[in-house]
Amino acid sequence: MVTTAPISTAVANEGSSLRVEGIRKTYAAPDGNGAQAPALDGVSLSVAPGEFVSLVGPSGCGKSTLLRLIAGLDQPSSGDLFVGTEPITGPSAERGLVFQDPNLFPWLSVRRNVQAGLVARGLLQQKRQEVDEFVRLVGLEAFANAYPHHLSGGMAQRAALARALINHPKVLLLDEPLGALDAFTRMRMQDEVLRLWETRRTTMLLVTHDIDEAIYMSDRIVIMTPRPGRIERIIDVSLERPRQRNSPEFLQLRGDILEWLHFAGEQAGTADNL
Amino acid sequence: MSSSVQEVKTPEESASSAPCAQTVSSSVRQGPTGSLFRIVLPVPLATIAALGVHLWASSKQPPVETHSYSVFLAAALGLFVLAGVLQSFWKRLRSWLQEMGPIFTAALVLLSLWEIITSGFRWLPMPYFPNPAGVLQSMINDRALLFDSAWHSFILLLFGYALGVIVALVTGVCIGWFARARYWGMPPLKIVGPIPATAWIPLAMVVSPSATFSAIGLIALAVWFPVTMLTISGISNTRASYLDVARTLGASRTYLIFRVAIPAAMPSIFIGLFMGLGASFLTLITAETVGVKSGLGWYVSWAQGWAEYGKVYAALVIMAAFFSTIMTLLFKVRDRVLVWQKGVIKW
Q: Most buried among A71, A96, B1, B144, by the most CB within 10 A?
């Protein structure tokens, strides 16, 4: 179904390091009585260039909030964020973001969605030849002129990935990008994302609810706890790539994480519907 | 007015995306006799019936007044018979005939009924209810003035509608996007907007140098309010995640407004354009009736003044054709612009 041979076989090293220092983020409580619920409380994290890091944890632990802060879509209440040595002050094309909903612009064809980043930065004339390259990279050349409502969930998410990648981001932020897909499409897409990561060496930060996905894909897994959002522990995943989903080491690690999360989950019991 | 936005589609029709194929297969199954009775014959038979009714009803009238209608019906009969012959080689014509046949038949039956209750049995008082032949004759006799009136109406409508839409899009986008424009713009919009444009006629007559200018201004005002309101609603309801994605792709504010918010608002803007078009028809005719000395609205009240009701109805027929053509054009434009949402949202 997908041509797995990437167009440019040369491995790029586009990733950049990422540093999060003592981030605190509070939102005004919805009842408006002035009480503030901290979504993130003293979160620090350092990600190496080209590293693949997953964030897992129960609802309300601030995973998505952290991603939005790194994307520059929100400002932290206190703390600092850096890409390389540059402080993050706002959204930028160097930090791509892919949501669970592909959020393709429905009024643009697949090709025009993919080239949106070039149009937005006024680089379309200069880099037009890359558009087809990225459409092919995600295996959508047959659908280049289709509108998003004609795409399946997996195809739409691949188009969203191509749209984020065309800017050659230093960091790609993935907010449960495969969460809405069925199990089979999801496993295939995991391999797709890994293939893209291996060719471009973009630094990846993946938010997921799926522990298998986190183990299968990441170099490190960050486990977070809610109320207030904090990093509970960080696990190195040293399994050989490509990983076997049913190897004893894989299953052992899975069991360990479930146990830690169960502990984290009990604390979160009252806050699950945040 | 929102009903004008609906394009009538039966569930059956939208379910079968290929009515052509269905038609062909069913007529094949029924054989040539079936298609003869269902497709070829009904409309010509109805035309012959209408012609018969006309000849009977007009036997007491001078032929000068009824001749054109006989010619009209005979020409229609010729065309329908020709279409009945051609359809056996021309698939698209056949499916069109099969779809439109009942409508044509019903229209011919209604024309006959009209003729029966007017010139046939004279159940309705003259001169208020002329027969179809009389209306057609008025249309032909007065064609130069009718054409001129339609042309003047068209010019007024075009300038008024275009001006209203342009101003509405600018105000709508500003109020929808900028918080400060919203703060200052919404109160006057909410207070002034709902006043029907025709209520400003006394003021417009005093202020404006000519009736034409005031009519254009009133039409523009009538269009402006619904288009502005629905543009605001469309812009401010742009999905936040589209804007977030665009920002992380490096979008400037210009890109966010013109390439994200406005396209996202287009379905809503088109609802406003349809509502505005309805309002512009109403305002056009009213303005022409009370102020402007030309156009279809003026023609109707002028013909009524002379008690020439044949001309009144002739103008109404022209008006119906004129307005529905414009409405159809707007539907076509919408289908072109909103091709991306076809099959997703039906309204």
A: A96
Task: Return the H-helix or E-strand segment holding A131.
Answer: helix A124-137
The residue assigned the tokens 């047959």 is: A142
In chain B, alpha helices (H): 11-15, 19-35, 42-57, 63-86, 91-115, 132-141, 143-177, 179-192, 201-207, 211-236, 240-248, 253-255, 262-290, 296-305, 309-337
ipTM here:
0.85
B244–A96: do the CB atoms touch at under 8 Å? no
- The yes/no answer on whether domain A18-103+171-268 falls in CATH 1.10.101.10 is no
Q: From CA A192, how far away is CA A190, in angstroms rounded?
A: 5
Express as a percent the part of chain A with pLDDT over 90.
Answer: 43
| Cα–Cα distances in angstroms (integers) from residue A228 to residues A22, A169, A257, in the given order | 13, 30, 20
C-alpha B8/C-alpha B143 separation (Å) is 33
Test B251 with A97 for CB contact under 8 angstroms. no
pTM of the model: 0.83
Architecture of domain B143-341: Orthogonal Bundle (1.10)
Classify B227 as helix, strand or coil. Answer: helix
CA dist B313 → A194, B51, B122, B152, B310 (Å): 73, 21, 18, 19, 5
Look at residue A235 and give its three-state secondary structure: strand
Cβ contacts of A101 on chain B, cutoff 8 Å: 241
The alpha carbon of residue B340 is apart from the nearest alpha carbon of chain A, in Å, by 5
Cβ-nearest to B244 among A73, A148, A164: A73
Q: Which residue of B has its CA nearest to A71?
A: B248
d(CA A49, CA A52): 9
- Which pLDDT band, with edges at 50, 70 and 90, does B347 fall under? very low
Residue B12: Cβ within 10 Å count: 9
Cα of first residue to Cα of last residue in chain B, in angstroms, is 14
The domains of chain B are located at 2-129, 143-341
Could you say which DSSP state residue B36 is in? I
Please write the tens of the pLDDT for every residue from A104-138.
Answer: 999 999 999 999 999 999 989 988 888 998 898 88
A78-83 β-sheet, strand order: A36-47, A18-28, A78-83, A86-87
- Asked if B58 and B134 count as a contact pair (C-beta separation under 8 A), the reply is no
3-state secondary structure of A185: helix
HSE-CB of A155 using CA atoms within 13 angstroms: 20
Domains in chain A: boundaries: 18-103+171-268
With pLDDT > 70 as the criterion, what percentage of chain B qualifies? Answer: 88
**Cα(A69)–Cα(A87) distance, integer angstroms:** 12
Rounded to 10 degrees, the C-alpha dihedral B29/B31/B33/B39 comes to 60
Residue A137: in which H helix or E strand, if any?
helix A124-137
Question: What gap in Å lies between CA B127 and CA B120, rounded to an integer?
Answer: 14
Look at residues B91, B117, B108, B109 and name the one whose alpha carbon lies nearest to residue B24.
Answer: B91
Q: How far apart are CA B94 and CA B87, in angstroms?
A: 5
Cβ-proximal residues to B335 (8 Å cutoff; 6+ apart), any chain: B342
Question: Tens of pLDDT along B282-304?
Answer: 999 998 888 788 899 999 999 88
Distance from B245 to chain A by nearest Cα, in Å?
7
